[in-house]
Amino acid sequence: MFGIYFLSNIASENLSLNRYQECISICNRLLSLNTENSYGYFYRGTAYLNLGKANEGVVDLQKSVTLKEDFPNAWFNLSIALNQLGNYNGALQAAQK
What's the confidence (pLDDT) of residue 4? Predict the structure, then answer.
């Protein structure tokens, strides 16, 4: 079985290669092993966001910043997702973090 660190790296690589569905699948596996992995939620939420699924992205990105409050990339992507949903005040607040 793959370790959590290895799965996180695979998820990151799939995300950077625009393989969003593969990234989501890997993150699902990663999060089944460790539900407290902020990077798993970040990668999956960002993949959802890139697939045009802002609602799913917001849920995962909010979980990511809840687990790791000092995660600027997650806050930034959360602001983009909230903006896409028309939550401009929430998007501004997330961007300022």
Answer: 86
